[in-house]
Write a structure and sequence with these properties.
By secondary structure, the protein is mainly α. The protein has 17 helices and two strands. The protein has a two-stranded antiparallel ribbon. Helix 13 packs antiparallel against helix 16. The chain is globular and about 60 Å long.
């Protein structure tokens, strides 16, 4: 995946701040919607709401992540074709409306449909937002900016924990998740700028010039002669990920993302219930959701900075190793203060490890297929996101919480291996136009 040539004049401008700020807001709502199910699940299980039990709860979680899989796989290609802004707006509207379906559900089947539809929007939003932020990031700080964006996801998880504690009612909690439709969507429609890099890659020069002039930034330069043409067609952008020896790198990113998202969604959904089954009270179990996401916010900032300096492959491997140790340690019943510390440290590594995969993919991609590269890495990882919640439900249904923590720790080791492989010269590969220039975030 060759290096990019973004519009340098826009990188430190108020235009970039506007793009990053609005993306942060919608990703906050994304995190709220994603984590709310795991946050209200212990109460739903205790009351038997809609006839739910641990096995069915795992199935519902997998419906949502299957929707995310479809959303992520399609959104990258759509974003490279129709634009980052349009994809972000539509995705936010979809998961907001789907939360209303969940709130009004009279049966578990309708509730599951709502979570599936929410997954379509949740899966579609994140790759496009990451791509847009990456394209506006200051040079040499791409991973830090992606990490900063992903703090919004963890902040949404914190809000979800507080919402569940405050409302004590799962229907009210899901109604609160409809708020983005009336806040995030209108703000994004009115103020979110399209990517200057995307406009240039699509040949929409007049729009790019108008946007640059409106905010007083340098207009994007035309593509240099002799460079490989950008992949602007829907499927050629995907095919470009396998050309010129890049197939090995692409597959390693996909496999690392599989293990990473199995961890993220499996642990996110089942941590409160698994800790409850391990003997902690309901208040503490929901408190763990808040603490693990606080750790995630710190991890995003630290991991992003280190990735920009030392490379995504090295930092990602260390982060996944630490995640595996942390998750496995949670299988041991410890004093509450110690458990909170371990949960915080586990969150520090867990969420940012996956974010660094996205940052590394974005850094190694070119202008015409960056959203496709990030979207398909996220999308293939969603197979793990589908499997993780289902697996957690099956393990919890058997009463095997210790085995559950062990299995999730093994997923961390799996991702450690494949993200580490992406740092090898033989796996990085090259394009037909010459060797790919290693960026600071590329590992």
């Amino acid at each position: 995946m060759p290096s990019r040539t973004p519009a340098t004049g826009a990188r430190s401008s108020r235009l970039a701040l506007l793009a990053v700020g609005l993306c942060w807001l919608v990703v906050l709502f994304d995190g709220l919607d994603m984590f709310i199910y795991g946050s209200v699940l212990p109460h739903m299980l205790e009351t038997g709401a809609l006839g739910i039990d641990p096995g069915k709860a795992g199935d519902i979680g997998s419906y949502a992540t299957f929707g995310m899989l479809l959303g992520a796989l399609s959104s990258g290609t759509i974003s490279d074709w129709a634009g980052r802004k349009r994809t972000i707006v539509v995705s936010t509207a979809v998961f907001s409306l789907a939360s209303a379906v969940c709130a009004m559900a009279g049966s578990l089947g309708v509730f599951g449909l709502g979570r599936f539809l929410a997954g379509l929007g949740l899966g579609g939003l994140l790759p496009s937002a990451i791509t847009l932020v990456s394209e506006y990031a200051p040079r040499g700080h791409g991973a830090l900016m992606v990490g900063s964006l992903m703090t919004a996801h963890q902040a949404g998880g914190i809000v979800a924990g507080f919402v569940a504690l405050w409302t004590g009612d799962w229907r009210v909690s899901f109604w609160i998740c409809v708020v983005p439709l009336f806040v995030g969507v209108p703000l994004a429609i009115k103020f979110l700028p399209e990517s200057l890099t995307f406009l240039r890659a699509k040949g929409r020069t007049e729009e790019a010039l108008a946007l640059a002039g409106r905010y007083g930034v340098e207009a994007p330069a035309p593509a240099r002669e002799g460079k490989r043409p950008v992949a602007t067609e829907r499927w050629s952008a995907l095919a470009a990920l396998f050309r010129g020896g890049l197939w090995a790198q692409t597959l390693c990113f996909w496999l690392a993302s599989f293990g990473g998202l199995l961890l993220v969604y499996g642990v996110s959904q089942w941590l409160p219930s698994m800790m409850r089954a391990a003997g902690y009270d309901l208040g503490s179990s929901l408190g763990f959701v808040i603490v693990i996401n606080l750790g995630g916010i710190v991890g995003m900032l630290v991991g992003g900075r280190l990735t920009d300096r030392f490379g995504g492959a090295r930092v990602g491997a260390i982060w996944f190793a630490a995640t595996a140790v942390g998750v496995y340690t949670l299988s041991v019943h410890m004093p509450l203060a110690v458990t909170y510390t371990v949960v915080f440290l586990t969150g520090l590594f867990l969420f940012s490890a996956q974010a660094m995969i996205y940052a590394t993919v974005a850094a190694r991609s070119d202008d015409g297929n960056r959203a496709t590269a990030v979207g398909w890495t996220s999308g293939m990882g969603r197979f793990g996101a589908v499997f993780g919640p289902w697996l957690g439900g099956q393990l919890l249904a058997t009463g095997s919480t210790t085995t559950g923590f062990t299995v999730f720790a093994a997923a961390g080791v799996f991702s450690l291996i494949f993200i580490g492989l992406t740092g090898l010269p033989a796996v990085k590969g090259s394009t037909g136009a010459g060797p790919a220039r290693p960026l600071s975030a590329a590992g």
